[in-house]
Amino acid sequence: MAEAKMAEAAAALLDRAARRDAALEELRALRVALQAVPLAALRARLGEHHLGALFALLSADDREQVSACVSILERLLQALDPLYVIQNLREELQKGLCHPEDSVKILTIAQVGRIVEDPGAVTEILSSPELLRQIIICIGGEKIAVAKEAIKSLSRIAQTQEGLEALFVSSLLSDLKNVMATSDVVRYRVYELIVEISAVSAESLNYCANSGLIAELIGELTGEDVLVRATCIEMVTSLAHTPQGRQYLAQQGVIDKISNIILGAESDPFSSFYLPGFVKFFGNLAVVDSPQQICERYPVFMEKVFEMAESQDPTMIGVAVDTLGILGSNVEGKQVLQKTRSRFQNLLSKIGHQAKNAPTELRLRCLDAISALLYLPPEQQTEDLLRMTESWFTSLSSQPLELFRSISTQPFPDLHCGALRVFTAIANQPWAQKLMLHSPGFVEYVVDRSVEPDKASKDAKYELVKALVNSKTIAEIFGNQYYLRLRAYLQEGPYYVKAVSTTAVEGAE
After folding, report:
1. In b/e form, how buried is each residue of 413-443, taking b as 16+ CB within 10 angstroms?
2. Between the CA of residue 357 and those of 310, 311, 368, 401, what are the distances in Å?
3. Nearest one of 426, 430, 434, 464 to 448, comparing CA atoms
4. Contact 300, 259 (CB under 8 A)
5. 352 and 395 Cβ atoms separated by less than 8 Å
6. Which of 104, 112, 200, 263 could form a disulfide with 99 if both were Cys (CB 3.0 to 4.6 A apart)?
7. HSE on the CB side for 256, CA within 13 Å?
8. Is the separation of the CB atoms in 124 and 87 below 8 Å?
9. How far is it, in rounded angstroms, from Cα 121 to Cα 119?
10. DSSP state string for 430-458
11. Which sign does the torsion angle of CA 343, 348, 354, 357 carry?
């Protein structure tokens, strides 16, 4: 009953607001009233003339009026089906996208976002070239939220054959190229869109390649401007995440070019700007492709990673450590690293030293890389590979288990969790279980809940316990008593608190 009354009151206010001369007080009252009415009740009372009038009020010079109308329309448009919005409010959306007020642009682009997510409504937008043109122009806007939403909408539109045709085989392509000329930042936004679209399928990539925009991106990657190179390599790395992207880069000779730029970096005093990104590119490529093939075909990559890791520059060390972690995250990559013999063993000693002594951010990166390097899935635990991870672990420090235990007791949650992740990475390997068992107080530390101060730490400890309990060799190595304590911990969950019973004593204060 009360709901119906509220809906009646809102409808009356809505009718008054639909007059072109609605007062600001009436608009404010309507804004408040609408928040209390369910969307279904609004839908039944909403007419096209209401919306038309409210959109017309957006053209006023009064910022407060515009702000009130934006809030009202946000609520009302939520009640409407996206197909209705595009069929009946096309012109209003077009005007909204070129409105001088950012709040109106954000309101409108959010509606475009709803329309493109709706399979029935998205085809309607394709027959509105003027609306699509306005969305493209929004990429060049100063407001990053509007630009991002525009990129997202265009990326979604391009997921169909008709959408690809509309964007790349029409005058809209020249709009896209025109908006790129706005500034460097806007140009990169368009490249970002092109890379996103290329990731959908081989056909999408063909449309993007035929537009000439991928070639422009690659031209900038190999151009003279070092800062531009640094930005573009990130996008080319994203392109390499898909099979069609890698194939395209290989066919165009881009991977060879990147390798040659790394080779030539020795003589470039500004190489530190772009070298980290170029090295990361190969690290990512190796993991999705074949670490062995990439490292054999582009030996400069491995050489440069080692050089960077052995240097004194914390930025370069950080990138090298990340890359080694990526490369060593699968067994083939681990075997590539193992082939370098003592050079990698020496490097592990340096990484262990950095994990203990470097600034916090680099320590965290070292801990994450160590976890990736040491982890072996149960089905890949051959004798040779277990011997290898054990030798890597012992190369990290003279007493590696104590090193990570000391890091895990420090009052910094990130470092604490980073060290627990190292223990979790080796928890299912028999040699590590024996080390843990023979390290005084280690198992007690694992089952002690009082040392975990926050949620992230409790979660990290729980993952360690889970990794131990799920190992086939744990019961035999740890013995029944410890195994049952770990299993009880696992069953109680990460946040279990033991109940403490207190007895009340009569007369006690």
Report:
1. eebbbbbbbbbbbbbbbbbbbebbeeeeeeb
2. 16, 16, 15, 16
3. 464
4. yes
5. yes
6. 104
7. 6
8. yes
9. 6
10. HHHHHHHHHSTTHHHHHH-GGG--SHHHH
11. negative
Count other C-beta atoms under 10 Å from residue 50's C-beta: 17
Residue 505 has pLDDT above 90, yes or no: no
Q: Which two tokens stand for residue 483?
A: 């195994």
Residue written as token pair 């390499």:
240
Burial-class residue 253 by CB neighbours within 10 Å (0-12, 13-18, 19+): exposed
- According to the model, what pLDDT value does residue 264 have? 86
> Measured between alpha carbons, how far is 487 from 322 in angstroms, rounded to an integer?
34
Type of residue numbered 72: I
Euclidean distance between the first and final Cα of the chain, in Å?
Answer: 53
Contact 263, 271 (CB under 8 A): no
Residues in the chain: 509
Per residue in 274-303, pLDDT (tens digit) is: 999 999 999 989 888 889 999 999 999 999
Residue among 488, 484, 490 nearest 464 (CA)? 490
**Residue 204 pLDDT > 60, yes or no?**
yes
Q: What is the pLDDT of residues 360-373, one digit of tens each?
A: 999 999 999 999 99
| Rg over CA atoms, the chain | 30
Q: At a CB cut-off of 8 Å and minimum separation 6, what does 505 contact? A: none
Q: Which long-range contacts (CB under 8 A, 24 or more apart) does 463-470 make?
A: 463/420, 463/421, 463/424, 464/420, 464/423, 464/424, 464/427, 465/489, 465/490, 466/490, 467/424, 467/427, 467/428, 468/427, 468/428, 468/433, 470/428
Region at 17 (left for phi over 0; alpha for psi -120 to 50; beta for the rest): alpha
Residue 449 pLDDT exceeds 60: yes
Q: Count of CB atoms within 10 A of residue 290's CB? A: 16
Quickly list DSSP for 313-380: -HHHHHHHHHHHHHHTTSHHHHHHHHTTTHHHHHHHHHHHHHHHHS-HHHHHHHHHHHHHHH---GGG
